[in-house]
Amino acid sequence: MSRPEAEECLLEDAAPSTAGDDERSHDFRYIRRMAREEARQVRRRVKRVLLFEQLNNFVLSSQAVPVAVGFVFGSCLKNNVDAFVSSFVAPSIAAIGSLQHLRDMHFTVNHSIFPVGVFVESMFETAITILALFYLIVVPMSMFTSLKYVPLRTCEECASWVKETAKRCPSCGQPTNFRPATAALRT
Question: What pTM was estimated for this model as a whole?
Fold first, then answer.
């Protein structure tokens, strides 16, 4: 029994002090009960309309949180790479063309200025960001995950999946006679 229902039962069991108060207390209890029921219906409708359960399942069971963390991390890394490019790479390239900064590089056609340097600097920032992400994130993570996972094979007795390095099947307890895939490639 929920708390509001328990309170309602207690209110109904309470005896009124006088006969005249009986009608008023009964009306009050009825109005209160109807208000509670209306509030329950409103809560149900709000949950249904706002899809709270689906939102909860999405946030907790999907990859929403790791993706959000990845976006924040990627944004921070991009800011660092952009700062590196604008501090070191762009001035080095600009020095070759005797410019103060790469963004100053431009050409003019019929009094229209085309700021080519902005595009070139953006291309360098993108290229260096991709290289940094690949060599600083993807390569180390793929090396780490390759150490973590072991190939699986099926048990000959019960047909359940067993790690290739296991000596016995965890389901049926039978010894496994797997040759590791790396050893199979060598022979």
Answer: 0.41
